[in-house]
Automatic annotation (TrEMBL):
This is Uncharacterized protein. Signal peptide: none annotated. The keyword Transmembrane applies. Its main location: membrane. Belongs to the ODR-4 family. The chain crosses the membrane at residues 408-432. Residues 382-404 are annotated as: Disordered. It comes from the Eukaryota. GO terms for cellular component: endomembrane system; membrane. It is found in: Membrane. Keywords: Membrane, Transmembrane, Transmembrane helix. GO terms for biological process: intracellular protein localization. The keyword Translocase does not apply. It comes from Alexandrium monilatum.
Length: 434
């Protein structure tokens, strides 16, 4: 029997009309991970942004994606689309991933896209393709297969409102000892930094896997421990009208976790609050698997933060790194718990996150819903870590010291450092609390 999948009806039923008359010709599909017995469930489509030209200005998007697929420029376009997929993967909630693409092309020409799409979607398991006929606005779904002769065959997809969609979320403190990376001056140093990021992600994942896990379906309700030996469905842990479930990772002890340090370099102790989210579309899914999805998303988030901090560090990291905070936003008009996150450095605000998310998701900067307080990292810093993450009390100035104009002289440099210290961060649990 052929495998079947779904697409989110409220989003995709109006998709062709929304892009009609725009220059959008290509983009990525976002959906659930592949399963053995069914196709993916699609929830979103993100237009691929224009490539930057030699002068830094965006180049015009392709007018005919089929003609591009047959041209010599297809390889460059595929490479750019893969970069878009890599960036998109980092901002999605757990349980969702780039899983295919859409193209504005007649149904009869779909097969001509296959060779380019096989290269573009390399590494994606059982990718799906949606074509949109510009004249008729008909949407068709395809399964892409590689091999010696890339091919597209019709996919059995049906509309689904995904009314059972559930958000799993957690707010978890982490603590880790990280070897000081060397200055990134050559390929060897870059490789060492990448290895450190992988070690941290692995360490966070292992530390979370060693925790007992409790879930809470309503605020103030007692935690119910998750039995990882049970095949119980998500539906057994939440009432039908529940739309969110808090997950708590519980661990006794207070020692920070160390990552490998074969060279015996000096270590930095990094602490951070990680707010993570994952999406479950069908509550028949096993609860243990849903929690594991959230755990993997948290571990990946830890590694991504460290990667960005190392990229931003100048002259190597000494002492502590300035780790980014994560801003969660949801595109307006999406009924699902589709909370996407962008990493912001301490001197950036929510506006910077919305700008970048808008470019990657194809949504206007003003068309995002801000996260509620329990998904807002910055709000939690001020609420739960006041005095720890906030600026220290200013030192008393020397007697008689005055600012120009007669005011007291304040330690401006110290204040700047204190503001940057609000979000020092990251990785493997010392006390994992929710």
């Amino acid at each position: 029997m052929a495998k079947k999948g779904t697409f989110n009806g409220p989003f995709f039923n109006s998709f062709a009309a929304r892009i009609h008359g725009t220059p959008i010709r290509f983009g990525l599909l976002v959906g659930t991970e592949a399963e053995d017995d069914r196709l993916r469930d699609l929830v979103f489509a993100a237009p691929t942004p224009p490539r930057p030209g030699e002068d830094g200005e965006p180049t015009p998007p392709p007018k005919d994606i089929v003609a591009l697929a047959k041209s010599k420029g297809s390889a460059d376009f595929a490479a750019w689309a893969r970069q878009h997929a890599d960036a998109l993967r980092k901002l999605l909630p757990g349980g969702l991933e780039p899983c295919g693409c859409f193209a504005v092309a007649p149904e009869a020409d779909a097969k001509d896209l296959a060779p380019m799409l096989v290269t573009l979607l390399k590494g994606v398991s059982e990718p799906l393709v949606m074509t949109v006929d510009e004249r008729t606005r008909k949407q068709s779904f395809w399964q892409l297969s590689g091999g010696a002769k890339p091919a597209m065959r019709p996919a059995q997809m049906k509309a689904d409102p995904h009314k059972e969609a559930l958000l799993l979320w957690t707010s978890t403190s982490v603590d880790v000892l990280v070897p000081q990376p060397t200055p990134r001056e050559d390929d060897a140093a870059d490789a060492a930094a990448d290895a450190l990021v992988r070690d941290v992600e692995k360490g966070v994942g292992e530390a979370l896997a060693s925790c007992s896990v409790g879930v809470e379906a309503a605020e103030g309700a007692p935690l119910c421990l998750v039995d990882f030996g049970s095949e119980a469905a998500v539906s057994t842990a939440v009432p039908k009208d529940c739309q969110e479930m808090r997950v708590a990772f519980l661990r006794s002890g207070s020692g920070p976790v160390s990552v490998p340090n074969p060279e015996g370099r000096p270590c930095m102790r990094q602490r951070c609050l990680l707010v993570g989210a994952a999406v479950v579309l069908r509550r028949t899914a096993e609860l243990r698997h849903a929690v594991s999805t959230l755990r993997k998303a948290l571990a990946a988030c830890a590694g991504q933060r460290l990667q960005l901090a190392l990229d931003e560090a100048e002259g190597g990291a000494k002492g502590r790194l300035q780790l980014p905070w994560r801003a969660l936003c949801r595109p307006e008009g999406v009924d699902l718990p589709f909370w996407c996150g962008d990493y912001c450095m301490p001197d950036e605000d929510l506006g910077a996150a919305r700008e970048r998310l808008g470019q990657l998701l194809g949504v206007g900067e003003s068309s995002f819903e801000a996260a509620p307080e329990h998904l807002d990292e910055r709000a939690q810093f001020g609420r739960d870590h006041r005095g720890t993450y906030g600026p220290p009390e200013p030192e008393e100035p020397p007697a008689g010291a005055k600012k120009p104009g007669g005011g007291l002289l304040l330690p401006a440099a110290g204040c700047a450092v204190a503001v940057a210290a609000v979000l020092l961060a990251v990785l493997v649990p010392m006390v994992l609390q929710s």
